[in-house]
Amino acid sequence: MSDPTRAAVYRGPGRLDVTEVQLPTLGPTDLLVEVAFCGVCGTDLHNVLDGWGVPDSIFGHEWSGLVVAAGDRAQIGVGTLVVGSGLSPCGECVSCRAGRSGLCRQRGAIGTERYLGAFADHLVVDAAEVLPVPDGVDARSAAYVEPLAVALHAITLAATQPDERVLVSGCGPIGAAVVAVLLAGGHTDLLVVEPSDLRRDLAERLGAATCHPDDLETPWHPGFTVDEPADVVFETSGVRAAVESCLGQLAGCGRLVLVGTGLDFPRLDTGRIILNELVVTGAYNYDDNGFAAALDLIASGSLPLDLLLEPGTIGLDGLLDTMVRLRAGEVAGKVLVRPGA
Ligand SMILES: [Zn+2]
Ligand SMILES: [Zn+2]
Questions:
Q1: 39 Cα: distance to centroid of ligand 1 (angstroms)
Q2: Deepest in the core among 20, 96, 141, 181, taking most CB within 10 A?
Q3: Which CATH superfamily is domain 4-144+309-337 in?
């Protein structure tokens, strides 16, 4: 065992203890990273508030940090600013060979193992699971790379063209990232459906048109479409009623990409899928090289990170309270934890 570090340890549904923990001993290819920033993700809310997590885990996977010690065979040196890339796909399984390394079956299944993440002062990580941050990108912006890579993967699977009509269901961090990327890529016809005033306001400041879910119509007959149907719908909320309303917004041959998760399973109108030949797909994790693409996009300066990232930062002590506020929709942008704060 190596040195202790302070961490927010998950004890059970709705319970986090900020306490000292022992870090694993540094292996030959491992890095000891001093966490700079770590974003709070919807997955963290499911793990901590909904009890999906394995007790004694430390969550937090959207991090940037400084390498402060390195194993003797690690390919990255002390003093390097890095981001977690979360993946070290095997390269050999069916998913990897199909170019879908985000589904690599050699990696542990979600929610089945104790997780040791970055809601901590330090973490130990294999050098194969990080990327150096390019010059000109600060640690705060770099911490946005993981949610951005998730949004990019959803967009890849949708194969959205700039002249298509797009609807984004939900404007939490992933919805907002999808909106920002599409607008930066020249899309103009973009409607965000979101019940929270705060998040609709964020969508508008990003440059999207918005509406409240109550204002959506669903054609009474599954073969009919609305007056201005979407070619692509991104469902990012995971909320049952929102998911169920998406199919009715699509044009013939439309595509629905499901990114948000929830355990209150929706009922989908299969008649509508059949009569309009709709394509429904899930989007999980990232494109091959998705982190590098996301870092490039951050470095390009084309995304309004000042809008996408919540101003200010919270310390580990404020994490649980912030999770509750995020769940209540009281925060619009991506919240960053600064463990040292
Ligand atoms: Zn995440
Ligand atoms: Zn694999």
A1: 8
A2: 141
A3: Medium-chain alcohol dehydrogenases, catalytic domain (3.90.180.10)
